[in-house]
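so my prof wants the structure for this chain in the tokens format not the other one, which i didnt know existed until like an hour ago. anyway here's the sequence
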Amino acid sequence: MPVPGEVVPMHGQAFIAAPHAHARHHLQQAPRRVDATGWPAPGSAMTRDITTETEAQEFLEWNGPDDPTPEPEGDEAWAPVPPTRSLALALLEAVLTPSQRRRMLREASLCVVVQAPSPAWCEPLRSAFRSIGQWAHVELRDGTAKYKRRPEEGAAEIANALAGGVRVLGISPSPETQLPPCLVASADIRITLPRPTERVIRQVIREATGSNPRKFPAGIVEGLDFPDIIACIRMGTTAASCVHRLQAASLSRGATDPSLADAPDVTAMHGFGEAALWARNLLADLSQYRAGHIRFDQISRTLVLASEPGLGKTTWVRALAKTANLPLVQQSLSSIFSSTTTGGYLGDIAARISKTFADARNISCPVLMFLDEIDALPDRNSMDVRGRDYWTPLINLFLLELDQSVASSGSRIIVIAATNHLDRLDPALVRPGRIHPTIRIPRPDAAALVGILRQHLGDDLAGVDLARMAGFAVGATGADVMAWVRDARRVARVAGRPMVEGDLLALIAPPDHRPEIVRWRTAVHEAGHAAIAWALGQERVTMVSIVPGPNRGGVTMTEDIVIDVRSRSDVEGRVITALAGRAAEAIFGLGYNSGATDDLRIATRAAASIHLSMGLGNSLLHRAGPDEIVQTLILDGALRKEVSSDLDRLFAKALLLVEEHRGLVHAIATTLMTVRQLDGAGFDAIVAERAAAPVPEGRRRG
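here's what i got, hopefully its the right format
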């Protein structure tokens, strides 16, 4: 340790050790020297910075924030240090190792890269680093308009500086995506700065006010950025008042996002299956984190939500953000890649990708980032060469930004992605370590629909048993329920009275004004699906209905009895079940009509997949995925002929099976004409009754 007045060599220049600690306030102009090539000599400044003579040595000797505040000696008066100066330096002191400090003081050629907690910290950190040493070049990139440059800009200048043996410093909230790659790759010291801890804040308060705060609530700077903190820690006030202001500011920043005011409590939502358990676990972990019992990186904080449209993915995420008291950063990836918003230019798209993640990273508290329509980012395995050339840089940038936001030290971002097309996602996107696990949201069952109806009804229809209406609503989505309740309220409002049960029931199961022959045809059709699904033994019937809905006259719902790999006969069984409705109409003398369009689509895709993707046909060649089947059939005449032949053969089997189980089909259809809808228990009762009846010779279960 130098004694007062000793000459200390540093970076090729002589600095005089100060006689007292408080001499750090005496400033001196740093000289600039250049070598024969014109580059600044090691240790000299490229800019005319004011540096503190002794602060570097004091920085090396610092013993930590737990040291008691030294009492002034003799006539020395204590001098307060403004938080604008001390906060960034205190954070550095808390993070740097002794080895890193020594290198920064002694090495003439050095490259240091610093990841700042947020853009607001970048300028103060530059000042802090300049107070502990001289830097020939400081590259600051915080993503704001003032320092907005592409990562590759300035790379040559930095490379030349490093080659000249000078000291270079890079500061950014996201070094990998904002700083020149050559600077990041050649860093001798890499520093990732977290948000300031309680010890750091205590030290800054002590230096500003001259006293330590006696009470210091946990999480007092939660959600506060650099400007918020320094605005609360004021010279000329008491330590207790600083703590009070910090606490008030943190509570203000932690208030619920006003845009989420209408979102429900996520724990009160119904029909979300495994997603509900994931939400409860996250809420419990966040509570433990905020109490200081676990680190943020111990929280499971990524998820992919997959479902068909209308099942409430967005509503669920908004509810989760509100219940967890988290800011919500929401972005649809399809809008990022839309040519109407970016012109399709790679640079514009890349900028929007980076901005989306920067918006989340720049929030100074835990934040929920919702990436909707994540399937807009295509799977590289399904691209042709031209598409891969265009998309690969964007996908790589997206994955890099994602890694920075999820896996980097100090990250406090929860990422939830949503898709209607899980099969289109790039495997690299949904692997463990990125956005994982994946949870499928099913269509709500009757029990869940009771809860969803009650949630949307609020105080309306209080005391009404909603089970009957929920039974009619099976197969509907949460979006359907919301629309029904909204329209029922409108009916009651126009009538000038409170809502009654009939208002809602008339929307869920409206009176069927179709001719009786049409209703009978529908009943026979749906009975055919249900009876053959049972007969083949692959699926369990959960609901059969002739209640008309949007774009449908009736519906049959089933669930797999065994979820496993399937043989060709299993897949063909699905095709037979899909064609059984059409077969039932033929067997009952009702002829053919255009009402089986969806059935034919399902049957065609399943039959084609046998040859195109499952390796169950005459070739092991994988020729097309689910989204490419139709196009392949259009282009391949031989395949079209083969699939058509399979469909004809399987339809003939469906006709035989319907004839064999004609009595069961008739019993189901007759019941539907009366009750309009059967749940799984009602269907099973009809099957049991038929099984108990005498079986004519030659009849058997298929």
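also thought this was worth mentioning. The domain at 446-508 is CATH 1.10.8.60 (Helicase, Ruva Protein; domain 3).
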